[in-house]
């Protein structure tokens, strides 16, 4: 489906004499990313609405997108698997409640993982210069450390999930 759409979009750009249009493969990849992101957001928000956890789901989506952008991480090869797993994770997090002590422990674990592995896998999925990696690591650590002040269950669980994705699935030491 996205192959045909990428080819069609590329052909239209060439016909419209767009200067240096992206290849059909690049356009296909872009369309897959948009569909994947929209799928996770819409499904998660729908589940959040149905379970009366809409605001918490929005918060999880924002927190996860932020920490994921800053710290990188593993990407699944199949878009459909990413949509299903991401939607499941985002939809479950609002239901997890932890004590303040456990919140601090989870946050400390997440911070440790960010110190060791963030940013991870940017060489494969983004074009961010390695000179920015120390800044990204610092930002990831600062964002996670902020939960020592906020003490949010949602943030603690979101950050530990991202930390697990960094260290279990292809985290790279930078």
Automatic annotation (TrEMBL):
| InterPro entries, per database record | AgrB
Q: By its UniProt entry, which Pfam families does this protein fall under?
A: AgrB
The record's GO molecular-function terms, alphabetically, read: peptidase activity
What name is this protein filed under? Accessory gene regulator B
Origin superkingdom: Bacteria
Q: Which organism is it from?
A: Paenibacillus methanolicus
For whether the record's keyword set contains Cell inner membrane, the answer is no
The transmembrane segments are 33-66, 78-98, 104-126, 138-171
Any idea which UniProt keywords this protein has? Answer: Cell membrane, Hydrolase, Membrane, Protease, Quorum sensing, Transmembrane, Transmembrane helix
Q: Which GO terms describe its cellular component?
A: membrane
**GO terms for biological process, alphabetical:** proteolysis; quorum sensing
Q: Does the keyword Cell membrane apply?
A: yes
């Amino acid at each position: 489906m996205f192959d045909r759409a990428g080819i069609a979009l590329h052909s239209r750009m060439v016909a419209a004499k767009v200067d240096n249009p992206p290849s059909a493969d690049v356009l296909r990849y872009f369309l897959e990313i948009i569909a994947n992101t929209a799928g996770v957001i819409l499904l998660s928000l729908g589940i959040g609405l149905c379970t009366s956890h809409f605001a918490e789901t929005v918060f999880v989506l924002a927190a996860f997108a932020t920490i994921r952008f800053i710290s990188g991480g593993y990407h699944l090869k199949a878009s459909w698997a990413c949509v299903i797993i991401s939607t499941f994770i985002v939809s479950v997090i609002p239901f997890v409640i932890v004590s303040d002590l456990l919140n601090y422990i989870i946050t400390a674990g997440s911070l440790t993982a960010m110190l060791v592995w963030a940013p991870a896998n940017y060489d494969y999925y983004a074009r961010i210069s390695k000179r920015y990696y120390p800044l990204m690591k610092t930002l990831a650590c600062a964002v996670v450390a902020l939960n020592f002040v906020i003490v949010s269950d949602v943030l603690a669980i979101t950050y530990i999930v991202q930390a697990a994705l960094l260290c279990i699935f292809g985290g790279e030491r930078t």
